[in-house]
Each structure stands twice: as C-alpha cells, then as structure tokens.
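Residues determine shape. Take a concrete instance:
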Amino acid sequence: MRFNYQAMVEGNQRPYIIAELGANHNGDMELAKTLIKTAKECGADAVKLQSWTVDDLFSKKKYEDNYFLGDDYRNRTDYSLKTVMEAYAVNKEQHFMLQKYCEELDIDFVSTPFSMAGADMLVDELHVPYLKIASLDVDNIPFLRHVGSKGVPVVISTGLTGMDDVCAAVRALEEGGCHEIVILHCVSMYPPKDEQVNLNNIDMYNMVFDYPVGYSDHTIGTVAPIMSIAKNVCIIEKHFTMDKNMEGWDHKVSADPAELKAICDAARQGYTMLGNYHKVVVEDQNRRDEFKRSIVAKHDMPAGHVLTFEDLDYKRPGTGISPKYYEALIGRELKHDVKYDDIFTWGDF
C-alpha cells in the first residue's frame, strides 16, 4: 500500500506501516538494504531514514562535551560523538541508491530531514511522497514553516512537547502552506513506562484537530502498536532492527522482524475487525435460529384452550414464534391439541 493522504482523511483504509530504520543501519548500506528488504517481507508500507549532516543536529560545544544519548556509546573512549555521527550519516548518493532499491521492491522511501537543506533535497531531488518531522523539531517554527512550503504532506511526531507547542507546530505548517498534515501521538522515551504511553491521547488529537492521527511507538514489544489499531490510527511507525543486540542507538527499543510482521499482520486483520458503526446481524440465518429460542407449550393442552402466561415456555431452536411476541399469544384459543414442548406457530390459533 502506497501513501495516500486522502484515504487517511476518509479513514477507509488500514493503518499505513512505517518501518523506521533511523540509524539502525549503523552506516552500513548493505545492512540498510537488508533492513529494507526484510521490512517489505514483513508487510511494511514504507521504510524511513534520517537525513542529517554532522552540522545539522549538534553544536560545537555538544561535540566537545562528547555526550551520547545512546547507552551503547556512553562513557566509551574508543568513539566520539562526532565520529559516530559521521559514520551513521547517509550521504546524498546513498539516499538515491536506497530510494532506487525501494522502488525495485515497491515500498515507499521516506526520511526525516533535520535541516532546511535536508528537506529541500528530499523533496526537490528525491521527490519523496511526504516528509516526516521528528519530535525534537515540534517547536522549531522557522523550520516547520519551511517544511510546510515544500508542497508535500507532512507527518509530524509530537513527543517532547505539550499541547500548546503541538498546536503552534500545526499552525506553522499551515502558515507555510501545508494543509495535508498527519499528527502522530508519540512519547519520546526509549522506552516509555506503560503508564506513560497514554494511547488515549490519540482520541484527544482526533477531537482537537481536523487532521488524521497516527502513532509513533517507542515501547518494547508489540502491545502498544497493536492496541493503537483499535484507536483507528492512520499510521503506525515503529523502529526496526535485524537484531536487538546490535550496537547502536535504537536497536533495543526496535521491533525485530518477527515483531514487525506481527504488527503488520495485526494492522490488516485488526482493521477488518473494526468494521463500522452500524449494528448488523452477520451470522448465518440457520445457525442463528439454532442459537435463539421459540415459544413452546409448557404442558399438554387440548383444542379450544385459551393460552395464559403460565402455559408458555421458551426453548431452542428459534424456528418458531420469537419470545418477543409472547403477549400476542396470551388469550388466543388453540385450534387443535398441543403436546408438551411443541413449538408454537401462528397456524396453531
């Protein structure tokens, strides 16, 4: 399934699944291709990279402090933050190569830009179907206005911030000219505690915004993304790795192939199970009759007997007169004898 914003607005398709590669390729393009191929085999609709240069995210002081967010690198002396950023960055040529590989596999290629130049490259040169904005840029108003001006839909995660900033981010995108926005509920903890996941926030977003709502997941396992299907989300985004034990930033909180497949399968089956807002009887009529009850004779009664409430009982199968019509039988005269447990029909009166 390819990205279709209008279908998301109309709510008439299953969730669109984004396998977030992020930096889980560890700078190895062959590993990146393996991740893409496996994501496709698992049933994902898109794979997403992160597009940065060494100068896009961290200041000179941050590099000098050499502070790592990822536990795998913290307190190590054989790596520096700048070295890792350089190793994990995907250059322009690699973007084109991976995009071409995605086209061959018929899976959407998208990425998160971390600069205006990155957004320009993704839209103007790679012609991505939409831009995905990370939670860290929810309050980056100049950047959001620029992103909004690019003429493509924008999917934005909303972790790390309160409702005021989410509203301001949406306004900034609109001011830039974007009116095709998808808002992703997100908790930017790696991983969050169960009580922090707050899937009910999806309902709140649906009430506040006139835009489709999805879910970007950072929990361990599959429970949260699968539960989000019942919230009728239009997108589920999940970090993806070939091996949770690999060295790197997000492997431990990422889905492995078995988990990603479980999420993709649940998205398809779960969406079908949601159905609609109309109560309909879908059971086979004959089977339904076997389960329901009919009005039956509580004892033997002769012809001419006038029925009372005490003459009636209610038993399976439901092939006779429904118990809901019991009052219509009271006071009626029998045309012929009936025996105990005979199922009444309208022809008996």
Summary: Strands lie at 16-22, 46-51, 108-113, 131-133, 154-157, 181-186, 213-217, 235-239, 294-297, 312-315. The longest strand covers residues 16-22. The chain has 15 helices and ten strands. The chain has two domains: 5-53+89-274, 285-348.
